[in-house]
Write a structure and sequence with these properties.
By secondary structure, the chain is an all-alpha fold. The protein contains 13 helices and two strands; from the N terminus they run βαααααααααααααβ.
Length: about 350
């Protein structure tokens, strides 16, 4: 009986994950449109909704706030995962970035205008970095599992958010804050451009600095890397600090360009968790996060387009899952090949 297995390709044989991901996107959309035959919209209505989402400038603009939050969360996680530091703390760091940003822009620096944006973004990055560094410190010096610790820290950040918006920062008895002053609100395009600059900078850091080499070395062969003088603790602390900082920036930028206020929530915004998916879809490459985050941002706004076309919410979720799974499978094939023996 024939056996089917995946065999990892040699580094020089691997394909471009972005090209494989694009092929997976096409395949996923084809399957999703076929699923549309089971809905009142039919195949033609579903196809029209997909074309509208992926070609309309208005839908692309609507996806930009999601792209900003997801991409910055994902790029930090991509570097962390390359060092085999499996944190899922971007969600909590993003929430703290939002809280810090609102506190500074609304309560502490309301009269400074655009200058407060620079101060707010810098402090939000610092708060996210310290929160991320805490996970690294516990991992390096106490051997605590970073996945579990970062998850618990996410819940702490979420509890702080819910306390503030339902208590001292609430407005009119509702579990939400007031809206930020108009002078500190920026466009979604501006926030996205800042995110792109950060992603390019981190790609340069990964490809052309000693830290990038150390990250890969630790991830691929920790003991060998340490034998050749790479300081494991230092690399993990730098990665945890860096990933927390960009997640804090993600929260700040999402606040000033998208949310513009804080709300009570049971699960958090969720963009830090989606950043995990963006990182893996990008093959853990900082620059690849651009494409994966744009796709995931469009999937957010696709929900509205499909439902307006007559697709039931349950089918929308199924279509989104099919697309993500298809892209994931094709990206995996860029690194592995199917062998039948």
């Amino acid at each position: 009986m024939a056996a089917i297995k995946l065999v990892e390709r040699a580094p020089m044989e691997r394909g471009n994950p972005l090209l494989y991901g694009a092929a997976g996107l096409v395949a996923g959309i084809v399957i999703a449109v076929a699923i549309g035959a089971l809905t009142p919209a039919g195949i033609s209505g579903t196809l029209h909704a997909f074309v509208k989402v992926f070609s309309s400038p208005s839908f692309l603009a609507l996806s930009l706030p999601y792209f900003t939050a997801i991409s910055l969360s994902g790029v930090g996680l991509a570097l962390a995962y390359r060092a085999s530091f499996i944190t899922i703390g971007a969600e909590g760091q993003l929430i703290l970035g939002m809280i810090t940003g609102f506190w500074l822009l609304y309560y502490m620096l309301p009269g400074l205008g655009r200058i407060s944006l620079l101060v707010g973004s810098a402090i939000s990055v610092l708060v996210g970095s310290v929160y991320g560094l805490l996970v690294g410190l516990l991992r390096v010096y106490l051997g605590v599992n970073e996945t579990l610790v970062s998850l618990m820290l996410n819940y702490i950040a979420l509890s702080v958010l819910n306390y503030l918006v339902s208590g001292p920062w609430s407005v009119g008895g509702f579990t939400k804050t007031d809206v930020l002053p108009a002078g500190v609100v920026v466009s979604s395009l501006t926030a996205s451009l800042v995110a792109l600059i950060v992603l390019v900078a981190l790609e340069v850091l990964y490809r052309y600095t000693r830290l990038g080499v150390a990250i890969d070395s630790i991830g691929l062969a920790r003991k060998m890397a340490m034998t050749y003088g790479i300081n494991y603790a230092r690399v993990i602390l730098k990665v945890s600090f860096l990933s927390g900082g960009v997640a804090g920036l993600a929260g700040f930028l999402y606040l000033v360009s998208g949310a513009q206020r804080l709300y009570s929530t049971s699960y958090g915004p969720g963009y830090g968790y989606i950043g995990i998916l963006a990182a893996w879809l990008a093959g853990l490459r900082p620059l690849g996060v651009i494409a994966s985050s744009m796709l995931l941002g469009l999937l957010y706004v696709m929900n509205t387009s499909l439902q307006l076309s007559g697709v039931l919410p349950s089918f929308v979720q199924a279509m989104q899952a099919v697309i993500v799974l298809s892209v994931t499978a094709f990206v995996a094939l860029s690194r592995y090949r199917i062998v039948v023996s």
